[in-house]
């Protein structure tokens, strides 16, 4: 039984890791996970150790309000700026599409969180409408959050429409 459970958890996690390839070469990577809210807030505040244990990850199912921690969105270094931007946009497009699919299934996402200590990561979070706060004792390191209900960010617009459509269709059935 334990092996089946462990395999199921690995399968759940693998679904949230995105690899962007060009001609067979990995050019970008993104991953994010729904994490138990209390544990996630402890991690973000530095009160819990990382890496986050696998049993703190939650499944994407309807009826459970989720907070999502964006671990990484990265493009392989060394590309010209326009190519790097193109790959970054492709990664973000994949995340937006996945969020839309979650909305279509009635999955409730309440908040998104991310941390950054790179100029490009900080710029991306701000551009996506995330609110940032620099760590008090660590200049250049930022904690970002986005409340889905109050956001008009391009990152979550399609999710919100799909989520509303899901509940409209459910009320028509019931």
Structure write-up:
This protein has five helices and six strands. It has one domain: Aminopeptidase, CATH 3.40.630.30. The longest helix has 24 residues, at 81-104. It has a six-stranded mixed β-sheet. The N and C termini lie far apart (38 Å). With 174 residues, it is α+β, with helices and mostly antiparallel strands.
Q: Indicate the mean pLDDT.
A: 87
Q: How does the major sheet shape up?
A: 6 strands, mixed
User: Strand content of the residues, in percent?
Assistant: 25-35%
Number of helices: 5
Q: Structural class, from helix and strand content?
A: alpha+beta
Q: Under the CATH scheme, which class?
A: Alpha Beta
Q: What is the N-to-C succession of helices and strands?
A: HEEHEHEHEEH
Q: Bin the helical content.
A: 40-55%
Number of strands: 6
The end-to-end span amounts to 38 Å
**Unreliable residue runs:** 1-13
Count of separate structural domains: 1
Q: Summarize this, please?
A:
With 174 residues, this protein is an alpha+beta fold. The chain is built from 5 helices and 6 strands; from the N terminus they run H-E-E-H-E-H-E-H-E-E-H.
